[in-house]
Amino acid sequence: MLVIADLLNQLEAELKKTIIERNLVNPLMIGIRTGGVWVAEQMYQRLHIAEPLGLLDISFYRDDFSQIGVNPNVRPSQLPARVDGRDIILIDDVFYTGRTIRAALNEIFDYGRPNQVVLGVLIERDGRQIPLSPDCVGISIILNVGQRIKLTGPDPLAIEIQTLTVAA
Amino acid sequence: MNDNLQLNSEGKLKHFLSIEGLPKELLTEILDVAESFVGMSDQQIKKVPLLRGKTIVNLFFENSTRTRTTFELAAKRLSADVLSMSIATSSTSKGESLLDTIRNLEAMFVDMFVVRHAISGAAHFIAQQTAPHISVINAGDGQHAHPTQAMLDMFTIRQIKKDFSNLRVAIIGDILHSRVARSQIQALNTLGVPEVRVIAPKTLLPAHVESLGVSVSHDLNAGLKDVDVVIMLRLQKERMTSALLPSESEYFKCFGLTEEKLKIAKPDAIVMHPGPINRGVEIESKVADGPQSVILKQVSNGIAIRMAIMAMAMQKQGIM
Amino acid sequence: MTQILIKNGQLIDPVNKVNRTGCVYIVDGKIVSVTNEPIGFKPDTIIDAQNKLVCPGFIDLSTRLREPGQSRKATFKSETLAAASAGMTTLCLQPDTHPVIDTPAVAELIKELAKKAGYPQIYPIAALTRQLEGTELSAMLTLKQAGCIAVGNANHPVRNLLILRRAMEYAASHDLLFMFRPNDYWLGNNGCAHEGVFATRYGLPSIPEAAETIALDQCLELVDLTGCRVHFGQLSCRRSVIKIYQAKKYGLQVSADVAIHQLHLTENNITPFDSNYHVLPPLRTEEDKQYMRQGLASGTINSICSDHQPHDIDAKLGAFPETEPGMSSLETLLPLMLKLVAEDVITMEQGIASLTANPARVLRIESGALTVGFNADVCIFDPELEWQVNTENWKSQGMNTPYWGQTFKGRVTHTLQAGKLIYSLENGSH
Asked: What dihedral do alpha carbons C33, C36, C38, C39 form, nearest 10°?
């Protein structure tokens, strides 16, 4: 049973701790569309970040273009002018294989060279395929076969674990 | 007909040769994907890595700096490697050397051909002959089709007019020799435009032109009434020397778009032209540079549309 | 003395008004009887034509064998085998060989090639003008004496009407038949498709109906003026049929043929950009096809030809307008004719007459009939036998046919030319 309020609180606490530990100065917060943006909006308010939230659409940086093709509903990413030398807090909803974060990092680095990137996710689950890991999490869980996480939002933000019935 | 060649086994775009045979949903998808590329020119990053590692060859058997550079730019913005070849067609150059050119390039592991050729059916021929993993985009073949131009025109119309289902569109000029007009007519009809009119002297209209799905007028004054979109076609100089028209000035008198004539159309009508413009022949400068003209928008939309079409034709290449 | 008996077949001989079961008795290459067995007849060969039709061998008014000069496309050897397997015993060779048939040497060469291929009954059509350039007359009399059966313009234009008039007058003075394919070069404007819905949709350079009918009309006027006998070849238009009808009614000595594919295919059948459908004259409209069919049924158009034009693969590889026009069509001639019969366009007798009696009459040769004393040119075919157009069955070197892969009904089982069995289905060839 996942309680969203608990997850958000835990993530907020870990982020606050990491900001101090890693000396983040005037961090730029970036949320990954779409679920990551919803979570980022929450963190953004709780951490009192001044600068507008950055929005990242990673559709064009995905590695599965030849499998799933072009997404017809892409809106452009919105990042401020410079990321050079910035401390970045990257927020996503679920950390699973790691491919989304790889794509997000590639896109951010096309904008410039950040000083450092701190990754915060609401839920870290099993199923890693790329050697990346979040710095801050709301919770780490292991799912059973056929289970998946579904986040709905933005208002109200809600989370549930769904079991997919496998077709015979 | 063409759709079997253009679509892969899952109904996704593989070759883009002609508007004919493509369903409305696919055309709409192209417009939607292009939408996401439009904002890119204003972005800090003008590139996306979608086609990184892919090689695109522009095979231009007919000269065209404008179209070629748009395709080059579009390919580069998708992070593809681009090779542009301008091949002069000798009078003896036929299917043989065309095939040889293709085979030689295939041996260098290319992924896509963008083809412009003076003969109708050339892009279709190349698509049929080329190795199965390669996609072919038609950048204009003879008098048959220029589908990317038609799509950028549709994109421009949608940007401004939003809804195709209540538009009157007039296409004015040399329909007979125009691959752009043929593709535009097909796109307009597929997207559900209720009325497409062609306005031209009889010498510049093909036989049975109504069979394309248009109504015909030989009189600009009558034909422009209540029109929402005015598309002007370029008049080439050869038409005078081959006894199709007496002179440019007589053509301008009857079919040239002037400020006065434009008033016959709806007050919010837009003026389009695939370019390059012959000022004073088919259109006067006041209109071409005027407030109702969207000609420059067409040009900038050209890159986004071509990016969309190239990206969609290359997708799912891993899976046959 | 070689004696051959064809027995139990359904004899169809339009000239002699024969349509019954019977036998054909052949001695030393000639037909000696189609009724009673000759006294002392002891056949060396017996062909059982049970359930088959026996008719005169087919006469093709327009064929191209590509030799001399274009053996890359086809040879006498390959194409005469195809012709024999298709029931043809006489071929008229169009003059646009390389070199053109405008000297007796070329006519002699053709006779040699024909003999060497074991298919002697090939009649060269002499070029109307030197090199087919349309300006100077060819040596028509010399060519006639060298064995040419007629003069023709192939697909080439004559420079102007004055030259055409003079050429026709000259041909008339030597009692030569002029085989004319009408097409106005300038109206034709290097088109590759009929000026209609299909060409408009696909942006193909096109040929209006008027290109054929105007040239036809001009020539008809010149027939009236010069008295030249003219056979109009490979017509394709509605109005052409009407003009021939009117001309005949008026009393002009003219005849006309149609290529078999024009009786079946129209611009609606063309798979876009498939060069197998690139032919000249182009495939026209449904209405034109119906008129051609009616013209055939009513006798205005009285002959069918194959218009056989085999091509090498490269000739058909390219964007549609760049490819060479023409269809390889000998072997589909019979089944397509039978299809017309099955569709009630013509009767079987009419169909066979259009391939035998009528061409013979046009050419004024003693052939096209099972008449006693004529050369034994006989075709035996099974009208029910189905076969597929594929590499196994196709004999022509040219595979340029839109019918590739299709199954047809009607196949030749035996072909005799001057009493010699030049083809039998079970043996493949002779």
From this structure: -170
Hey, what are B209's tokens?
A: 């032109």
Can you read off the two tokens belonging to residue A102?
């790889």
Q: Cα distance from A58 to chain B (closest Cα, Å)?
A: 10
Which residues, in sequence order, are CB contacts of B42 under 8 Å at separation 6+? none
Q: Does C186 touch chain B (CB under 8 A)?
A: no
Chain C residues whose CB is inside 8 A of the B119 CB are 319-322
Per-residue pLDDT at B236? 82
Residue C186 corresponds to which tokens in the numbers above?
Answer: 């300038």
Rounded CA-CA distance C398/C262 in Å is 19
Q: Which two tokens stand for residue B85?
A: 């070849």
Distance CA B127, CA B141 (A): 13
The percentage of residues in chain C with a pLDDT greater than 70, rounded to a whole number, is 99
pLDDT in tens, B137-157: 999 999 999 999 999 999 999
By C-alpha distance, the chain B residue nearest A111 is B45
> How would you classify the pairing of strands C230-232 and C254-259?
parallel
Which residues on chain B are in Cβ contact (under 8 Å) with A63? none
Q: In this complex, do B94 and C200 lie within 8 Å of one another by their Cβ atoms?
A: no
- Cα dihedral across residues C219, C224, C226, C227: positive or negative: positive
Catalytic pick from C13, C184, C307, C382? Answer: C307
Over its C-alpha atoms, chain B yields an Rg (Å, rounded) of 19
| B140 and B19 Cβ atoms separated by less than 8 Å | no
Inspect the interface and report whether the beta carbons of A70 and B40 lie closer than 8 Å: no
Instruction: Please name the amino acid found at residue C53.
Output: L
* Integer Cα distance of B101 and B91 in angstroms: 16
pLDDT given at position C66 = 95
A-interface mutation test, from B48, B54, B78, most A Cβ less than 10 A away:
B48
Domains of chain A: 4-163 (3.40.50.2020)
Please report residues of B whose CB lies closer than 8 A to that of C271: 1
Query: Which of B119, B202, B210, B216 is the mutation pick for testing C, counting most C CBs within 10 A?
Result: B119
Q: At B77, list the tokens.
A: 């913005």
> A61, B315: Cβ pair inside 8 Å?
no
Q: Are C255 and C302 in contact (CB under 8 A)?
A: yes
Tokens 């569109």 belong to B169
Cα–Cα distance, B194 to B188 (Å, whole number): 9
Rounded to an integer, what distance in angstroms lies between the CA atom of residue A20 and that of residue A43? 16
Q: State whether residue C428 is helix, strand or coil.
A: coil
pTM: 0.89
Contacts of C65 (CB under 8 A, 6+ apart): C74, C75, C76, C79, C80, C91, C93, C122
Q: Do C314 and B206 touch (CB under 8 A)?
A: no
What chain B holds in terms of domains, given with CATH numbers, is 24-145+300-313 (3.40.50.1370), 147-296 (3.40.50.1370)
Interface predicted TM-score (ipTM): 0.90
Nearest to B44 among A59, A75, A81 (CB): A81
Minimal C-alpha gap between B103 and chain A (Å): 24
| Residue of chain B whose alpha carbon sits nearest to that of C203 | B144
C196 — contact with chain B (CB < 8 Å)?
Answer: yes
Give me the helix-helix angle, B295-314 and B147-161, nearest 10°. Answer: 120
Nearest CB neighbour to B208, from listed C200, C204, C322: C200
Residue C284 CA to residue C199 CA, distance in Å, equals 10
User: Which chain C residues touch B120 with a CB distance below 8 Å?
Assistant: 202-205, 273, 319-321
H or E element in which residue C339 lies: helix C333-342
Kindly report, residue by residue over B272-302, the tens digit of the pLDDT. Answer: 999 889 999 999 999 999 999 999 999 989 9
C-alpha C251/C-alpha C233 separation (Å) is 19
Three-state DSSP at A113 gives coil
Specify whether C307 is catalytic: yes
